[in-house]
Amino acid sequence: MCHSSRYRRRGEKFLEAFNSLAGYRQEIVANCRFARETLCDCSEIDAELGELHREIEVVTELSRKAIHDNAHAAISQAEWRERNNGYLERHRKAVERARELEDLKRERQNKNLMLEGFIRGIEAQPLVLEDFDDKLWLAAVEKAVVGEDGGLMFVLKDGTKITSDN
Q1: How far from chain centre, in Å, is Cα 105?
Q2: β-pairing verdict for 141-146 and 152-156
Q3: What mean pLDDT is predicted for residues 146-150?
Q4: In 71-110, which positions are buried (b, 16+ CB within 10 angstroms) versus exposed (e)?
Q5: In what order do the strands lie in the sheet with 161-164?
Q6: Could you tell me which residues are beta bridge partners of residue 143?
Q7: Lowest-pLDDT range, 35-49, 81-95, 136-150?
Q8: How confident is the model at residue 18 (pLDDT cuts 50, 70, 90)?
Q9: SS3 letters across 16-47
Q10: What's the pLDDT score for residue 109?
Q11: Whether the model pTM is above 0.85
Q12: How far apart are CA 151 and CA 166, in angstroms?
């Protein structure tokens, strides 16, 4: 079997499998919206980032004050270094945690965009597809797996699995 007929056959199997979901369309969309609300919520991340930014400001000001005091008053250098190193360590930890949270937030925002694209793709399609649609494939399908029996399983981006017999 040549490549083009194999791809055409997979496309037909995808249409068959996708059309089998027509009765579950609203449920799939509702599940995706729930997943977006649950998995993509950044409110706790934003709150913690706000606290970390305030911590960074406070520690920066404390460090500035320590430098000023050291320059204008006789202070034990060992005591000053210990205090300033403590401020620097607090600052380092806060910045490190803020970076971790910003990465997590970006990941959730990307997941949100992916799910929103999936939802729009599902809602924009007619209940029954007659022709293969590249855009729907890209928006909806995470991967296609060929089984030992030659049947196909399509894993959608929301985690739904649909199978098409050989």
Answers
A1: 8
A2: antiparallel
A3: 82
A4: eeeeeeeeeeeebeeebeebbeebeeebeebeeebeebee
A5: 141-146, 152-156, 161-164
A6: 155
A7: 136-150
A8: confident
A9: HHHHCCHHHHHHHHHHHHHHHHHHCCCHHHHH
A10: 95
A11: no
A12: 4
Q: What is the phi/psi pair of residue 162, to 5°?
A: -125, 140
Which of 108, 113, 99, 106 minimizes the C-alpha distance to 48? Answer: 99
Read off the tokens for 17. 């499998």
Asked whether 115 and 36 are in contact (CB, 8 A), the reply is yes
Pure H helices in 24-166? 25-39, 43-72, 77-124, 134-140
Residue type, 7: Y
Distant-in-sequence, close-in-space partners of 15: CB < 8 Å, separation ≥ 6: 129, 130, 131, 132
Chain segment 55-110, per-residue pLDDT in tens: 999 999 999 998 998 888 888 889 889 999 999 999 999 999 999 999 999 999 99
